[in-house]
Design goal:
247 residues; alpha/beta; binds iron/sulfur cluster; 3-stranded antiparallel β-sheet; single chain; 10 strands
Length: 247
């Protein structure tokens, strides 16, 4: 016992001070894109042509963050002339259309549903549904429960049974084999309930977009309340979105 206490005192507190204090991410992290609306059309077209996700609209000069896998090819090929990815991880959105961006996003807190804040602001229990994901979204969600992020300190946690949950957090492109299981899980959650689409797979199909084997768009099955883009979303993107939307 004394050894454990000694060890704890030596180690100190490992939990991040975020959101009380800002947190800096590694400079190669790709977050909110900064888009140059004055960019030459030829460069924009080159960026769109190389984009594996068809995420760039050349007419409006926008990027669909619900499709983008943040691979960075558009930044590389255009040498940053059209788009440069910032380290801003606050890229969650309350509507699908908000994710189609020219470089800004509406403040998520302003678009959250007030009754959800009232109901779930102090305690939010989520059931994670992995609907055919590659496991990266799932792994980076799991990280939130480790001591560094310590999601439970905000009253947010993941539970085993949908009957104990306030909503579902869905990752993956929703393979056809997982569709019924997803719907069963959703139906088992008592109302009122929230639906969170996490990762470009659940928002738009991601790299599996267009495959006959996936649904590819959670919004086509269920009313999505919160979108968390990324491939996978950084744990801080998820944490930021949950805190902005529910707290
Ligand atoms: S970073 Fe996004 S928009 Fe750019 S090429 Fe990759 S998927 Fe397309
Ligand atoms: S969004 Fe990317 S990381 Fe997440 S399940 Fe799909 S392919 Fe994997």
């Amino acid at each position: 016992m004394l050894k454990i206490i000694k060890n704890k005192m030596e180690q100190g507190c490992k939990t991040s001070t975020y959101p009380k204090e800002p947190i800096a991410l590694y400079h190669r992290y790709r977050g909110m894109p900064i888009i140059n609306q004055d960019c030459n059309n030829d460069i924009v077209k080159q960026c769109a042509a190389i984009c594996p996700q068809d995420a760039i609209d050349t007419a409006d000069k926008t990027i669909d963050l619900g499709r983008c896998s943040f691979c960075g090819q558009c930044e590389t090929i255009g040498d940053g002339a059209f788009v440069h990815f910032s380290e801003d991880f606050g890229i969650g959105a309350a509507t699908r259309s908000d994710l189609i961006t020219g470089g800004t996003l509406p403040a998520l807190a302003d678009h959250s549903k007030q009754h959800f804040k009232k109901l779930f602001g102090r305690s939010l229990q989520l059931r994670q549904v992995s609907a055919g994901g590659c496991n990266s979204c799932e792994a980076d969600t799991n990280v939130l429960t480790t001591p560094f992020f310590d999601l439970a300190r905000f009253g947010i946690d993941f539970v085993a049974s949908p009957r104990h949950a306030d909503g579902i957090h869905v990752t993956g492109p929703i393979s056809k084999n997982m569709r019924q299981a997803l719907m069963d899980t959703y139906n088992a959650v008592p109302s009122p309930k929230v639906v969170i689409a996490s990762g470009c797979c659940s928002i738009s199909g991601g790299p599996f977009h267009g495959s006959d084997e996936v649904v590819g768009d959670l919004g086509s099955l269920l009313p999505v309340d919160l979108y968390i883009p990324g491939c996978p979303p950084h744990p801080l993107t998820t944490l930021h979105a949950l805190l902005q939307y529910f707290k």
